[in-house]
Specification:
33% helix; Rossmann fold; eight-stranded parallel sheet; 16 strands; alpha/beta; eight-stranded mixed sheet; 23% strand; binds NADP nicotinamide-adenine-dinucleotide phosphate; Dihydrodipicolinate Reductase, domain 2
Length: 348
């Protein structure tokens, strides 16, 4: 059985650990904590062994700690790093590279320049089998993952009939559980966003994608407005809906008034962490005008990357055939079932 260590237990790490612990093919040997706070007890109560940095062990004396992060990394086959953006690079240098450990990094890291954690970004829809033998791989961020789910089916079906993709990303300000971040009454913009370069990393540098990014005062998901220009007449709305009908992790919903509607419904029917783990195309907002198709979808910021990490883990640890890996992920995440439930509730 392969041994996995989840280094970081925040919004993303806690979700990954919680889902992957039910995978019979791996043993989650534990999680890494850096602050001696209530989340240590939370992790222990959920059955996880907690490991802490060697030089901080004294500050955890009031908790039942299982050992040091340094030792946990020595004893596993794969680290899933879920540290704050940029910290993954420091971990790569100080913890993983010196002992030749293999690691998955999250989307807050870089793939170019001096602080690159990896050469490749993973997207299960596009490059599942390109990561089998890699030592380090970065899972795309939630926005980067969501854009792949929309763009790849379009590229496959319409390829050279597409002129460009123009996306405006409305990013949530903070996560649901993030009580430390104040949600300011402001709209901020991001100069030089990383999102288009990240998508091009796994989809090809020639992808004509142009992205603008705004941060808006909400904790309830991201919304992407994407305009797709075709060389001649754009497809019809029903062709577009049909295109995404069988896409994994893509639900097509009607009558949603805002992202909180979806989150509240997910909570009411007890989806884990209130996550849907997918993107939601808002069908009544799709517009087609001559050569342009306009599509709007929301992207479950924390949930979407968690099954992706599970797929990436299977590719790196088992080189599992893609179809089997998706089947196995489905057994843990029930994404098809969730999609059907959401589509039945938010129907035409
Ligand atoms: N949140 C999202 O919606 C989202 C979506 C997709 C991708 N991501 C990416 O996922 C990564 C993690 O984000 P997050 O939202 O989960 O952050 P977060 O909630 O702030 O959690 C970060 C965690 O990292 C731990 N940590 C601190 N120093 C560390 C170190 N040196 N090594 C390992 N872990 C350390 C923290 O531990 P203590 O609490 O013990 O200090 C905390 O548990 C980032 O790259 C982010 O860009 C986030």
């Amino acid at each position: 059985m392969k041994r996995v260590f989840v280094n970081g237990y925040g919004s993303i790490g806690s979700r990954i650990a919680q889902f992957i612990k039910d995978d019979q093919d791996v043993e989650v040997i534990g999680i890494g904590k850096y602050s001696p706070d209530e989340k240590v007890s939370d992790a222990i109560s959920r059955g996880f062994r907690v490991y802490v940095p060697k030089d901080k062990i004294d500050s955890f004396r009031n908790f039942e700690i299982s050992g040091t992060i340094e030792d946990a990394i020595l004893n596993c086959d794969l680290v899933i790093d879920a540290s704050p953006g940029g910290v993954g690079y420091a971990n790569k240098k100080t913890l993983y590279e010196p002992i030749n450990a293999r690691a998955i990094f999250q989307g807050g890291e870089k793939i170019t320049g001096e602080k690159a954690v990896s050469q490749i970004i993973f997207n299960s829809r596009v490059n599942y089998d390109k990561v089998f033998d890699k030592q380090f791989v970065m899972q795309g961020s939630c926005n980067v993952t969501g854009m792949g789910r929309i763009i790849q089916p379009l590229k496959e079906k319409y390829s050279n009939k597409i002129k460009r993709f123009d996306a405006t990303l409305l990013r949530r300000w903070a996560d649901l559980e993030d009580s430390k971040t104040e949600v300011k009454d402001s709209i901020e913009w991001t100069s030089n966003p990383h999102h288009d370069e990240d998508v091009k990393n796994y989809m090809g540098a020639e992808t004509p994608l142009f992205v603008r990014v705004f941060k808006i005062p909400t904790r309830q998901m991201h919304v992407h407005l994407m305009d797709i220009r075709f060389t001649s007449k754009a497809p019809t709305i029903s062709e577009i809906i049909e295109l995404y009908k069988n896409e994994y992790g893509v639900a097509t919903l009607y009558g949603v008034k805002g992202t909180k509607d979806i989150r509240s419904y997910a909570e009411s029917i007890k989806f884990s962490f209130k996550d849907t783990n997918m993107i939601h195309i808002h069908a009544d907002l799709i517009e087609v005008q001559d050569d342009t198709m306009k599509i709007t979808y929301s992207d479950d910021q924390t949930g979407i990357v968690v099954p992706e990490n599970h797929l990436l883990m299977q590719a790196m640890l088992f080189k599992r055939n893609r179809e089997e890996a998706f089947k196995h992920t489905e057994e843990l995440f029930h994404m098809e079932e969730k999609k059907q439930i959401l589509q039945a509730h938010f129907r035409k």
